[in-house]
């Protein structure tokens, strides 16, 4: 089984900086501003569509009853909460069709 790598924001910034010849600091600021704007939009309840990449939207998960099997399966109420839902766009779905899934 092939071990999957974890790519961090730092790695992305370094990669973009090297490939585009843009100073690391400048790339980092643009990426962070981009992520901040996404967070801002979603925290206001907006739906964010990035053509061909995907759609981010906030949905509310209803409250439910859960059980902790380590504590005699005592039922607890898990309150409703807002979560981010992501639907992949056409180009992203197509590029994922070539990913080999190992078990």
Give structural notes:
This protein is of the alpha+beta class and 103 residues long. The chain has a single domain, classed as Irregular (HU Protein, Chain A), CATH 4.10.520. 38% of the residues lie in helices and 28% in strands. The chain has helices at 9-20, 24-43, 90-96, and strands at 48-50, 54-61, 64-68, 74-78, 81-88. The termini are close together.
Low-confidence stretches: none
How many angstroms separate the termini?
6 Å
Shape: extended
Category by helix and strand content: alpha+beta
> Cα-atom Rg, whole angstroms?
19 Å
Strand content: 25-35%
* Helical amount: 25-40%
| Count of individual domains | 1
Q: What string gives the helices and strands in order?
A: HHEEEEEH
Give me some keywords for this one.
two-stranded antiparallel ribbon, three-stranded antiparallel beta sheet, extended, alpha+beta, single chain, HU Protein, Chain A, 103 residues
At a glance:
This protein is α+β, with helices and mostly antiparallel strands and 103 residues long.
Topology:
Layout (H helix, E strand, L loop, with lengths): L8 H12 L3 H20 L4 E3 L3 E8 L2 E5 L5 E5 L2 E8 L1 H7 L7
């Amino acid at each position: 089984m092939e071990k999957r790598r974890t790519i961090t924001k730092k790695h992305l910034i370094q990669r973009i900086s090297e490939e585009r010849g843009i100073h690391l600091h400048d790339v980092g600021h643009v990426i962070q501003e981009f992520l901040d704007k996404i967070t801002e939009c979603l925290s206001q309840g907006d739906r964010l569509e990035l053509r061909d990449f995907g759609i981010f939207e906030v949905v509310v998960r209803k409250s439910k009853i859960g059980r902790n099997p380590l504590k005699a399966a005592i039922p607890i109420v898990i309150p409703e909460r807002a979560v981010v839902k992501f639907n992949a766009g056409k180009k992203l779905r197509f590029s994922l069709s070539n990913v080999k899934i190992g078990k």
